[in-house]
Amino acid sequence: MKDIQIGHRLIGQTHEPFIIAEMSGNHNQSLERALEIVEAAAAAGVDALKLQTYTADTMTIDINSGDFWIDDPNSLWKGTSLYKLYQEAYTPWEWHEPIFKRCRELGIIPFSTPFDETAVDFLEQLQVDCYKIASFENTDITLIRKVASTGKPIIISTGMASIAELDETVRAAREAGCENLVLLKCTSTYPASPENTNLLTLPHLGELFKCHVGLSDHTMGIGVSVGSVALGATVIEKHFTLSRADGGVDSAFSMEPDEMKMLVIETKRVSKSLGQVHFGPTEAEKVSLKHRRSLYVTQDLKQGDILTKENIKSIRPGAGLPTKNLELVLGRKVTSDVARGTPLTWEIL
Predict the structure, then answer these.
(1) In this predicted structure, which of 38-52, 78-92, 138-152 has the lowest mean pLDDT?
(2) What domains can you pick out in the chain, each with its CATH number?
(3) Which of 181, 194, 229, 342 has a Cα at 20 to 30 A from 80?
(4) pLDDT digits over 34-79, tens only?
(5) Contact (Cβ atoms closer than 8 angstroms) between residue 18 and residue 79
(6) What is the per-residue pLDDT across 248-296, written as a single tens digit (0 to 9) for each?
(7) What are the φ/ψ torsions at residue 136 (nearest 5 degrees)?
(8) Burial of 122 (0-12, 13-18, 19+ CB in 10 A)
(9) How far apart are CA 337 and CA 333, in angstroms?
(10) Are residues 184 and 157 in contact, defined by beta-carbon separation less than 8 angstroms?
(11) Which SUPFAM superfamilies does the record associate with it (predicted)?
């Protein structure tokens, strides 16, 4: 699978994971806070910062009852309407340019998730390097075709989608011009539990659709994301905030700066550790071979003495005969005087 270029970064199995900090609505309707989030994300070492580009009116309609009212007892947003939630969470479009500018000044890649065609047109004016499709829009074929027509790399979250739905989505994207695609395993609960994450899907997802894969992770902590790298994740997305205590629509399942920094460090560490299938000592291990166990003379011997379990033993270091030869040498005589601590060799028997 060929590498994907996003901004100054290459994405692929031979590169460090591409880490995305998702701001979402954690700016709490403050541009100053949004810029502070950008600075904290850059300091934590992420590769990219992602926004969401919509308005309440491009997401839904203003109705406070029925299907438009959130009454799920397990939802973080229970007791409000979809319209009011999106009013609270959206990032004003006029903020995008200063946020993108600050990202670029700090060396991280800014991009966004568009939720309708007008958002794609707006983001094209800002010269984004790639696009993200959210799980809830991964069956919106019209939107996917619009994004694909830009020719930019597309990252698609696969939350809730069946294989048949994903097949339709991927076909639509590729037929409309997408040549660089990443599919993110995602569990669309907030927060998500490790038990519902199913990381073993990652390699299967890549094999099915012949593309790079990654993880949009809504679990708490960094363990699930770190583990995903060992299963082939090349992209990891995590929601990000300055402090969960500050509140905000997504703060409860978002990472704080110290956690994000640790995620960057540990995913890089796992990536470096994958290597290749290898047996036998590595170059770095060869010096340690001398510390293996081997057969040594453990009592002073005179010429003609017979070897017994009392005068030879399997000990460290490893300069003597391999320990597998113990039964072969027991009962044999030494040909000369041998001092205690001498490695046993065939030449003295």
Answers:
(1) 78-92
(2) 14-54+90-274 (3.20.20.70), 286-348 (3.90.1210.10)
(3) 194
(4) 999 999 999 999 999 999 999 999 999 999 999 999 998 888 888 9
(5) no
(6) 888 999 999 999 999 999 999 999 999 999 999 999 999 999 999 999 9
(7) -70, -15
(8) middle
(9) 11
(10) yes
(11) AFP III-like domain (SSF51269), Aldolase (SSF51569)
Between CA 157 and CA 141 the distance in angstroms is 14
